[in-house]
Design brief:
Layout (H helix, E strand, L loop, with lengths): L1 H26 L1 E6 L4 E6 L4 E6 L9 H31 L9
Antiparallel strand pairs: 1-2, 2-3
Helix pairs in contact: 1-2
């Protein structure tokens, strides 16, 4: 049973490190652009959109659909980058172990 105690201690250490990493990732951001930089989206490590910037030149009242498409593209790319950032950092912490429910 001594081995099981060591496993539990290691699991608790890993859990503590994961919680700290999640807090750190919440502060980290990624940035995505669309439309040649006309739309800029920033997301954090919690997969939350932090900001969206839209240049005036891309706002065309006669083509709202294009603006909507650019915003969706930039948001989706920012969220993808955020997920990749989190996966990469978690992978470093877990040594590549696939632990269900971590992300």
């Amino acid at each position: 049973m001594k081995g099981m105690g060591n496993i539990m201690k290691e699991a608790q250490k890993l859990q503590s490190k994961m919680l700290k990493l999640q807090e750190e990732l919440a502060e980290k951001t990624v940035e995505s652009t669309a439309g040649g930089g006309m739309i800029k989206v920033v997301a954090n490590g919690k997969q939350q959109i932090v900001s969206i910037e839209i240049e005036k030149e891309v706002v065309d009242p006669d083509d709202v659909e294009m603006l909507q498409d650019l915003v969706v593209a930039a948001v989706n790319e920012a969220l993808t980058q955020s997920q990749e950032m989190v996966s990469g950092e978690m992978g470093k912490l877990t040594g590549g172990l696939s632990i269900p429910g971590l992300m």
